[in-house]
Amino acid sequence: MTVIVRHDYLHGEKAKKDWWMGQVIHCGGAAHAPSVHNLLQIADVDSGMIRWVNADLVTQILGLMVTCISSRILSEPSKELKP
């Protein structure tokens, strides 16, 4: 899943831009509620850097519709095309 992440200024990094795009690798939960994903491990698509990000910093989820459509197409039985 591809996401847009707001830059976190609290880490002391100087931002070249206000946001960055990343690919979610892993979703982690808190000890008291493991089913709630509050930390995400995300790979920056530009630099390749892998970071742990608070889920509150994710502003957009991209490609969700494509994933849903793809899974529906794959789950349907194949239909032969007639000429």
What is the compact description of this entry?
By secondary structure, this protein is mainly β. The protein contains 1 helix and 5 strands; from the N terminus they run βββββα. Strand 2 and strand 3 (37-44) form a beta hairpin.
Backbone CA Rg:
17 Å
Structural class determined from secondary elements:
mainly beta
Distance between the termini: 37 Å
Q: Number of helical runs?
A: 1
Total domain units: 1
The average pLDDT score comes to 74
Inertia-based shape? globular
What fraction, in percent, of the residue positions are helical? 10-25%
**What's the helix-strand series?**
EEEEEH
- Largest sheet, order of strands side by side? 4-3-2-1-5
Profile the largest sheet. 5 strands, antiparallel
Approximate strand percentage:
35-45%
Q: Would you report the number of β strands?
A: 5
* Low-pLDDT segments, ≥5 res: 65-83
Structural description of this entry:
By secondary structure, the chain is mainly beta. It has one domain. The chain has one helix at residues 64-75, and strands spanning 2-6, 19-29, 37-44, 50-54, 58-62.
Lay out the secondary structure.
Elements (H helix, E strand, L loop, with lengths): L1 E5 L12 E11 L7 E8 L5 E5 L3 E5 L1 H12 L8
Antiparallel strand pairs: 1-2, 1-5, 2-3, 3-4
